[in-house]
Write a structure and sequence with these properties.
single chain, alpha/beta, Rossmann fold, Alpha-Beta Plaits, 3 domains, seven-stranded mixed sheet, four-stranded antiparallel sheet, globular
């Protein structure tokens, strides 16, 4: 063991997550060995700097990371536990309960003590090792998922690894993890995909009217169907529970809307039902943590018109620094044909008035909130 990371790490599966973990751990000082079912993918991973192909006589890995979908992870974990009897084995699958159950059935209880689940919470719309990045996990949660017989030292080891690659370690049991990711990852994928399917019907003239809101809400719909079939199937119970709540809200919306078209006096409560939906959505989105953790209520959004000319966005950021206001988050809304974009600047709420006043004084057009 060297510092926070093991001296030798074997990564089994060199896609986006496995490749990014290899790059990050290599940068943190580990000797990373790569292994993939595809020789071509293995060769590409080596060329991209993920790690090296193990050679005869190499020392056994101290840590094995299985970066495979939930349906394949348990078998690969069990094989790794048998192959390297002194190694700690973890995995990066996005569902933990089904993987733990599979491993527990496949190995004896003594081997199971060397297994601990993990889930680095990061990703990209692009898949495969070609999209791997060593900084993919910086600032992102890294969930450590021990079970009842996990070696206690394994928890500390994975927390140290998470810290070494710039992540924020979080310890959760498998069931709690799976419920959490149903809310924050799996159901959003389903709803984004459902929304995107409604775009199959309109003609091109209708789609030409699309703005940033549609792009924001359908961005993750452009994901790998094969991977998501496995993820959703592996976490079916938790995803179903959340979607049943969504269906109840949708039924309320449909019932309210049914009384309203062309009716000057809709049924009592119809407008209220719609208003409550939007209001509850406001409260929900404010609970999403900002980049420093904690709910986002502490942040405000200042919207600025940014001319479509080279250097204008850089000038905006530079002048924010001169004013002394830190940028927490940023989104640029720039539709085809416009000569300006809308820059949405997320800042500490206590600095909103200062930023608005100073940017206006410097000639920027700040939209009224």
């Amino acid at each position: 063991m060297s510092g926070l990371v093991p001296a030798t790490v074997r990564i089994i599966g060199t896609g986006l997550i496995g490749g990014s973990l290899g790059m990050a751990l290599g940068a943190a000082g580990a000797d990373v060995q790569v292994q993939d079912i595809s020789p071509g993918t293995t060769a590409l991973a080596v060329e991209l700097g993920v790690g090296r192909v193990p050679a005869p006589g190499d020392p056994d890995p101290e840590l094995v990371i299985v970066a495979a979908p939930p349906d394949a992870a348990a078998q690969l974990i069990a094989e790794a536990l048998r192959t390297w009897p002194n190694a700690l084995v973890t995995d990066a699958a996005s569902v933990k309960g089904i993987v733990l159950d599979g491993v527990a059935r496949a190995v004896d209880p003594e081997m199971l003590t060397r297994y601990i689940g993990a889930h680095p919470m990061a990703g990209r719309e692009i898949s495969g090792v070609i999209a791997a990045r060593g900084d993919l996990f910086r600032g992102r949660p890294f969930v450590v998922v021990p079970h009842a017989t996990t070696d206690p030292e394994a928890v500390a080891l994975l927390q140290g690894i998470a810290t070494a690659i710039g992540s924020v370690p979080v310890v959760l049991p498998a069931a709690e993890h799976d419920t959490a990711v149903a809310h924050v990852s799996h159901v959003p994928q389903v709803l984004s995909s459902l929304l995107a399917t409604t775009l199959l019907d309109p003609d091109e003239r209708a789609l030409a009217l699309a703005g940033q809101g549609l792009r924001d809400t359908t961005r993750i719909a452009d994901s790998d169907p094969r991977l998501w079939v496995e993820i959703l199937g592996a976490n079916a119970a938790a995803v179903t529970a959340v979607l049943e709540g969504v269906r109840e809200r949708m039924d309320d919306v449909l019932a309210a809307l049914a009384t309203m078209p062309g009716d000057p006096d809709p049924a009592v409560g119809s407008r209220r039902a719609l208003a409550e939906l939007i209001s509850d959505g406001n409260r929900g989105v404010r609970r999403i943590p900002g980049k420093h953790g904690g709910a986002s209520d502490a942040f405000a959004t200042v919207t600025v018109l940014v001319p479509d000319r080279p250097g204008e966005l850089g000038r905006l950021f530079t002048e924010m620094g001169e004013i002394g206001v830190n940028l927490e988050d940023f989104r640029l809304e720039h539709n085809y044909g416009r000569q300006v974009g809308l820059g949405h600047l997320s800042v500490d709420a206590s600095r909103e008035e200062l930023l608005t006043r100073e940017l206006s004084a410097r000639g920027w057009t700040v939209a009224e909130s």
